Amino acid sequence: MKQLVSTDWLEKNIDKVKILDASWHLPNSKRNAQDEYGENHIKNSIFFDIDKYSNQYSVLPHMLPSKKDWENIVSSLGIKNSDHVVVYDNSEVFSSCRVWYSFIYFGHNPNLVSVLDGNFNKWLHEKKPTSKELLKIFKSKYKASEDTALVIDKHQVNENIKKKKFLLVDARGEKRFLGLQPEPREGMRSGHIKGSKNLPFNLLINNKDRTLKNIDELKAIFKEKDISNEKDMAFSCGSGITACILGLANSLITGKKPKIYDGSWAEYGLKN
Q1: Is 244 among the catalytic positions?
Q2: pLDDT value for 184
Q3: What confidence tens digit (pLDDT) does each residue in 112-121 have?
Q4: Given 2, 17, 191, 260, which residue has the most CB atoms within 10 angstroms?
């Protein structure tokens, strides 16, 4: 798997890959990802609307779409099965990892989908090529398959509380996990799923350049939180976005594709 590519690698291969801007912001951030893309983005990149390209028939945010809808989405972006897709974002929650996971789930060659390490901030800091122009897209005929083992649902989560078949790791901040800080969405309880462990996603990120920490550092962080990478794991968060950062980090350590609780706390924490 080629989970990460560097800014230098992308600059060298900028005309050989398909680049997606998958920026997404929390509902209370007052930022508009598509407007920001229109103002400036990596040259040759296409905007990937995480809200629009999720399951539009679910009341829950960011749920995976159907296989047919995914094929239509990716085809409309002009991406072929043989393309190397590089995803980046300009977000505080590293939303590019969610799109990386979605491509993995829908059967894209895991060696041909990567996240840009350091994202747009590092790219800008290094004064690499950007643009305001919208790329002309030629529709493709993308074919998908589903790896359903990579998704955990609420029934499996509840069953696991008793049977403990896998470890559920929550990427939200510690205060949200402990119920000391309200959720950013209305109508949500505070707290966490019984038996889950907390690993806030920002612990995995280098503050200076927003790159992911190296593998040895990642291993040490998992170990410090008493999370064994040898165990079968699934990841959750608020709505399935930052869980994928933990999934990518664990994938770097183990080489395994990540399992995500797609509904996450947006489903489990709903007030009745």
Answers
A1: no
A2: 86
A3: 999 999 999 9
A4: 260
Beta-bridge partner residues of 116: 5
Report the alpha-carbon distance of residue 44 to residue 23 in Å, rounded: 15
How long a stretch of residues is the chain?
272
Contact 194, 239 (CB under 8 A): no
Mean pLDDT computed over 224-253:
95
d(CA 270, CA 203): 27
Model confidence, pTM:
0.96
Of residues 95 and 26, the one with the higher pLDDT is: 95
pLDDT in tens, 204-215: 999 999 999 999
**Extended beta strands in 141-226, E state:** 151-152, 167-170, 197-198
Distance of CA 184 to the CA centre of its chain: 18
At 1-49, the pLDDT tens digits run 899 999 999 999 999 999 999 999 987 888 999 999 999 999 999 999 9
Domain segments of the chain as ranges: 4-131, 148-268
pLDDT at 26: 81
Topology match between the domains 4-131 and 148-268: yes
CA 36 to chain centre: 19
Catalytic residue among 104, 237, 246, 252: 237
Cα–Cα distance measured from residue 88 to residue 91, given in angstroms and rounded to the nearest whole number = 9
CATH number of 148-268: 3.40.250.10
- Which of 257, 247, 230 lies closest to 111, judged by CA? 257
Contact 123, 151 (CB under 8 A): no
CATH number given to 4-131: 3.40.250.10
